[in-house]
Design goal:
Layout: H1 13-24, H2 33-36, H3 55-60, H4 70-78, H5 94-132, H6 137-162
Helix pairs in contact: 4-5
Length: about 160
């Protein structure tokens, strides 16, 4: 075979990954509560006090809060997260902004669904009125082609007189 028992050479990927995790487990350092807080596996920085930059932010590169743009403020107001623009704090968490964006996306989808249904009823009503007047695309097309034939005949007649 490829390797002896205990080596990383295996034919099946699942066994290879399992053995790698077992081999690397003793090499991992124990978590120090003072460095990353009480839950060191989380990179959200939820356990620290507001306004301080923790080492989780430095390690993971994920900011704990960001300054909302004017569009973000409008989204936060439209979704009902805050009542007025003055209520919005200078820095908000990405989770809050993501939740507001998702809610705004859903509201926009519902609005578009409603507008589509209204447009469908408007087209149905317009088509019924056109049917009462005996208007159809076929009759419009036949009238347009008859007009073109007349214009072509007049142009041919004028061309014949000019010679």
């Amino acid at each position: 075979m490829l390797g002896a028992s205990g080596s990383c050479f295996r034919l099946r990927v699942g066994r290879l990954l399992a053995e790698r995790q077992q081999l690397c487990a003793p090499l991992r350092r124990p978590l120090v509560p003072g460095i990353l807080g009480s839950t060191a596996l989380s990179c959200t920085g939820q356990n620290r006090t507001p306004g301080t930059i923790g080492s989780a932010e430095k390690i993971c590169g994920v900011p704990d809060s960001s300054k909302p743009s004017t569009f973000d403020k409008k989204i936060l107001l439209w979704t009902g997260r805050f009542k007025t623009e003055g209520d919005i704090p200078p820095r908000i968490s990405p989770q809050m902004l993501d939740a507001a964006m998702n809610k705004a996306r859903i509201k926009a989808c519902y609005i578009m669904i409603g507008l589509t249904i209204v447009a469908c009823f408007a087209v149905i009503a317009s088509a019924k009125r056109a049917a009462e007047r005996h208007e159809s695309l076929t009759s419009w097309n036949l009238a347009k082609k008859a007009k073109w034939r007349e214009e072509a005949a007049l142009a041919a007649e004028a061309k014949a007189k000019a010679k």
